[in-house]
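Bug report (template v2)

What were you trying to do?
Predict the complex of my protein with zinc ion.

What happened?
Run completed; filing so the output is reviewed.

Input:
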Amino acid sequence: MPSDEDFLRLAIALAHQGRERGGHPFGAVLVRGGKVVHQVYDRCAEFSDPTFHSELSLISEYCRAYHVMSLEEYTLYASTEPCPMCAGAIHWARISRVVFSVSQAMLQELSGGSPKPNAASIINATRYPIEVVGPLIPEEGLTVFEGYAFTANRAIPSAGHPGDGAPTT
Ligand SMILES: [Zn+2]
């Protein structure tokens, strides 16, 4: 059976893939019973959607496709520790286990971003416990950020924003 490190390496490979396609360097993998059931890389730029983080889209797409509302007995592997938004989604999806490579603290050190609460504190805000493991093999996870420029707006240019004069209906 593949190890946590094996699944994390897949999430890291997806993060590299997302970056190569012009997006943010993040990837996530959903595993059940030792098998990968869904995998994504970050597509915020592709869809001009700042909420479409890899963990969030992984949960949303899988649950919609298979008509499930609870991901108990699933493990989510993330190339970087989930942000507060994704940690909230993991909480609501009741995922049993979360394993990440690079911590939010390591990411903020690189990006110069503001400190964020760790994922475990948000994921485990209520009584059912979710196991959170990491940072694991961070030296491998950090490779996705080598030479990466952190810019707020990485959206693929479009005809304009709603309200800029373009039709909105
Ligand atoms: Zn996120």
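What did the reviewer find?
The two ends are 51 Å apart (CA to CA). The longest strand covers residues 35-41.
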